[in-house]
């Protein structure tokens, strides 16, 4: 928690932008600023908390410089040229095929996928269960059966990602008894999942007539819209649409600008969306805002799916009142199991590693913390 000087801020407007470095209580102070280009931090030599136990092994650099780039391709070229010491990579394609520059081949630079144990974004195609046909769990389950994660991962993400099978993916908070997600790796898998999906849809009253999935009673086609906020997600959505067409379902895909997307999300004005939830290793009151009936009926909360289940409601409310870590873990795992059983989303992928590339003599500890790479614990070896 930052502690700021009352004497310094007296008479100044706290929420006004400034380029004048101010007194703070951290291990570094701002040495210089070049707006829009660079900020330089300098280590505080007499840092008051340098010797306390939580800070042992931290803050090993005298100076830390952040350079800003408008174009990531320019930033990558700068890294390959050795102008930058370290780069975090977020593009799976670039990580797979782009890191073939001379410095890496010569052993002067290092490319590492560093495993972590923190919760990642729970990304998925989220159903709005406030609306038909997604009020019916059989429909939700059926559509999830035909999503071809194996194709998406292999062709769009070079096989580097893992399938989400929990609302706390890759952590010890994940439920231990959750069935694995459907696999569509082979033609036999696809046919089996199509048959199972067709059976669920027919049981829910949706039959095929002239190649179109319609409601047996009303004759209305099963159709809906997939709302996106990023054109780059269209590839995933269109892949899903291709699979759904084999069931006689033809959804529409619509990309909105950020303002319109946020407005629709806050008002729950969508059928299905590709979005996410985010948790930590210490879940608390936010779980009630994610999953409770109250949150489902309150605009601008985070219960995107409109989940209103008595058991989930009680579980999400109880998490913040857990009396011990063991009790918290048990409650979270029970909640996770209930959420996954409800088929409120079609889980996508997460990255169980941090993609990091750096130039020697930069180095890091052999043991990585559960939350992943902590740059404050790195150091620079002698050349």
TrEMBL record:
It holds the Pfam family SBP_bac_5. GO terms for biological process: microcin transport; peptide transport. InterPro entries: SBP_5, SBP_5_dom. GO terms for molecular function: peptide transmembrane transporter activity. Keywords: Signal. Residues 10-292 form the Solute-binding protein family domain. The keyword Metal-binding does not apply. GO terms for cellular component: outer membrane-bounded periplasmic space. This is ABC transporter substrate-binding protein. It comes from Micavibrio aeruginosavorus. The lineage of its organism: Bacteria, Pseudomonadati, Bdellovibrionota, Bdellovibrionia, Bdellovibrionales.
């Amino acid at each position: 928690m930052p502690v700021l000087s009352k004497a310094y801020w007296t008479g100044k407007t706290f929420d006004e932008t400034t380029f004048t470095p101010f007194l703070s209580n951290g291990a570094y102070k701002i040495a210089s600023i070049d707006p829009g280009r660079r900020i330089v931090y300098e280590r505080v030599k007499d840092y008051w908390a340098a010797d306390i136990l939580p800070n042992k092994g931290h803050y090993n650099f005298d100076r830390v410089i952040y350079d800003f780039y408008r174009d990531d391709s320019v930033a990558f070229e700068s890294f390959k040229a050795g102008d930058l010491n370290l780069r975090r990579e977020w593009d799976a394609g670039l990580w797979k095929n782009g890191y073939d520059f001379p410095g890496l081949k010569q052993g002067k630079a290092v490319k590492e996928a560093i495993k972590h144990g923190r919760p990642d974004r729970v990304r998925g195609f989220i159903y709005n269960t406030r609306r038909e046909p997604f009020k019916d769990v059989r429909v939700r389950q059926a559509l999830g059966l035909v999503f071809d994660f194996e194709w998406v991962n292999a062709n769009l993400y070079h096989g580097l990602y893992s399938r989400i099978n929990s609302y706390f993916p890759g952590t010890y908070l994940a439920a231990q008894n959750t069935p694995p997600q459907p696999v569509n790796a082979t033609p036999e898998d696809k046919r089996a999942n199509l048959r199972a999906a067709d059976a669920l849809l027919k049981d829910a009253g949706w039959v095929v007539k002239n190649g179109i999935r319609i409601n047996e009673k009303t004759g209305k086609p099963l159709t809906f819209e997939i709302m996106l906020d990023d054109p780059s997600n269209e590839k995933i959505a269109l892949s899903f649409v291709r699979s759904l067409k084999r069931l006689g379902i033809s959804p529409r895909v619509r990309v909105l600008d950020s303002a319109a997307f946020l407005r629709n999300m806050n008002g729950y004005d969508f059928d299905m969306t590709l979005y996410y939830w985010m948790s930590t290793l210490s879940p608390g009151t936010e779980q009630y805002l994610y999953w409770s009936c109250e949150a489902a009926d309150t605009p601008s909360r985070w219960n995107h799916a409109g989940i209103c289940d008595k058991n989930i409601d009680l579980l999400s409310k109880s998490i913040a009142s857990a009396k011990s870590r063991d009790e918290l873990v048990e409650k979270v795992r029970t909640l996770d199991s209930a959420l996954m059983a409800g088929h409120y989303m079609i889980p996508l992928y997460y990255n169980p590693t941090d993609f990091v590339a750096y130039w020697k003599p930069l180095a890091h500890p052999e043991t990585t913390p559960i939350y992943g790479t902590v740059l404050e614990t790195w150091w620079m070896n002698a050349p």
